[in-house]
Each structure stands twice: as structure tokens, then as C-alpha cells.
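User: I'm designing a mutation panel for Putative peptidase domain-containing protein and want to avoid disrupting the core. Could you give me a predicted structure to guide residue selection? Please restate the sequence first so the numbering is unambiguous.

Assistant: Good idea. Sequence first, for numbering, then the predicted C-alpha cells:
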Amino acid sequence: MLFNAPALIFAGVALTSLVAASPVNLATRDLKNYVTDITIHESCNSTQRRMLEQAFADTFEVATSAHEYIRTNGPTDPVFEKYYGTKPAAFSAALGVWDALLYSNKDGVIFRCDNPDGNCGQPGWRGHWRGDNATSETVICDLSYTDRLYNQAFCMYGNTVAGSPLGTYWSIDLIHRLFHVPQVTNGQVDHYAEDYASVLELAEHNSTYSPFDSDAHQAFAAHVYAVEVAKGGDACVGQAAEAHDHDHTAATSSAAPAAATTAAAATSAAAAAPAATSAAASQDCHTHSDGTVHCV
Ligand SMILES: *[C@@H]1O[C@H](CO)[C@@H](O)[C@H](O)[C@H]1NC(C)=O
Ligand SMILES: *[C@@H]1O[C@H](CO)[C@@H](O)[C@H](O)[C@H]1NC(C)=O
Ligand SMILES: *[C@@H]1O[C@H](CO)[C@@H](O)[C@H](O)[C@H]1NC(C)=O
């Protein structure tokens, strides 16, 4: 090998003289300050901070599993197709959204615990994006701390991906809230579907927007986490309620989410009911850039 050395040195000299001969700009690239972590505002007390730190750790765990799942299994995976459809563009679009959520610059992305816009007083509000008042800020209201579940509790208490509100878990709720912050995905993720059933509908019949639909990403991530990490299997995924079933009778709507929303329960009215009741119990509102308030 040694006899190769002179040639290498010669090549090096040649390269050096070439470089010296042309006007090369040696200035370093003008990189912005890159921040990996979301800032928890000083208005959060020590308990809120500890809970939010855990919630963000959960968020990144779920987002990482979604990202890895797509990257590894590719666009023909049945779970991928279930939420994102089969259009050729879906793979890199969905992968890019998760990549942006995880790795885009979080400089200035702030979550706070005070109530600067006065919205937390409204019944059921658990938090909101500050919209035009501060586009990179999100407020988490006191109600969020009472019953959002951490990742360890995935698939517990009869919760299913299809039958429980996506915001049941801190991780999925914060993924949703991060999608509202324009800098995280350059404002590309929005609300096209409105619930689990319409996510599946969108993916099956009209999937152009699926890789940019907030709920599609939330549901996909919950599904992957429920099966791959929580090991909850099909019982934890559950079945979608009928897309346009508004027939929630009093008799069924008071039922707690079934411990096992099995395939057998799939098409029954009972399967639809938990989604309706729990959604009301954990109402989750946010304001869009056009000023409209969206509660799910
Ligand atoms: C933090 O704030 C919450 C909500 O206002 C309150 O219930 C809790 O006691 C506070 N914790 C500390 C350590 O001050
Ligand atoms: C912005 O602030 C105004 C005035 O405080 C408030 O009425 C409005 O609801 C706030 N917007 C959001 C999205 O919270
Ligand atoms: C497809 O989805 C988009 C976005 O939600 C919607 O604007 C459009 O009307 C849908 N098209 C059909 C045929 O459902």
C-alpha cells in the first residue's frame, strides 16, 4: 500500500493548486441557531414543567416510532396505506412531515402555562395555538393536566385508537399542537379529515391530502405505537365508527369505551358511542390561521 502514497500526495498538490487558482469563498455557511428541544415557558411551575417534559419525551418517542416505521416499511405497507393512501407521492410526503416534526429547528417554539389570551376559561379548553397573537406559541390550559395519559398507559382503560379521542394521550395531543405551529412543518399540515372514520375515508377515496392531514398523522402514529410498542394488537387499534353515524342514543352514549373494541363490535352502534362521549369529555379546541375555532 505504501507505494500508493506518492500518487496521493501528487493528487493533493494538484487539488491545492487548483483551489488556489480560483477565487474560493472560504466563509462558513451562515447556519441559524439550531434548537432540538421545545421551550417550556417560565410561566410553567415545577409540576407543570415536569409533566410537560415527560409529555414531550412521549411525543418524540411516538413520532420516532412513526418515522421509523414509514422509513423501514415503505409505501406499500398496509398500515401506511390505511392512513396515507396509495398515491406515489404519499411516501416521501409523510416521511418528510415526520422528519420535520422531529428535526426541524425548534428555536422559538414555546409552550406556556399561563393564560395570555384568556381562552383557558372557556369550558373544555385544554390548550390552544396562539395564532396571530404569537404564531410559535402554544398555551396548555390547566385541564390538560387532569386526565391526559402518558405513553405507558397506551391501550389501558379500554382506550382504542379508533374508538377514543386521539388526544387521549399527551403524545398524540402534542403532535397535533406542534402541527399547528407554522415553523414545525412550514405550515403544511392542516385539518382535512375530522375524525378517525374520515381519516380512513380520505385515505381510501381522496388521499391527495392524507399525508398533510393532522388527524391522519395522529391516527397513524397512535396505531403504530399501539401495535409495535404497546403491543396492544388489533384490540387496541379497534374499529372505526361509521363515518356519518350520528345516531348516538342515550342508551349507548353513556357506555364507557368497551374494554375490547373487537372486530365483532366493529359495526355496532356501541362502537360508535365511545368516540362521541369521550370526545365531549375531553374537548380539545384550537384556532386556525383564518380565525376559526376547531373543537374535537
Ligand atoms: C402548579 O400549577 C397548578 C395549576 O395552577 C397547581 O395546581 C399546582 O399546585 C402548581 N404546582 C406547584 C409546584 O406550584
Ligand atoms: C388573541 O388575543 C385576543 C385579545 O387578547 C383574543 O381575543 C384572541 O382570542 C387571541 N387569539 C387566540 C388565537 O388565542
Ligand atoms: C378531497 O379532499 C379535499 C380536502 O379535504 C376536499 O377539499 C375535496 O372536496 C375532496 N374531494 C372529494 C371528491 O371528496
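For picking mutation sites, this is relevant: Residues 45-48, 142 surround 2-acetamido-2-deoxy-beta-D-glucopyranose (ligand 1) (CB under 6 Å). Residues 1-19, 244-282 have pLDDT under 50 and may be disordered.
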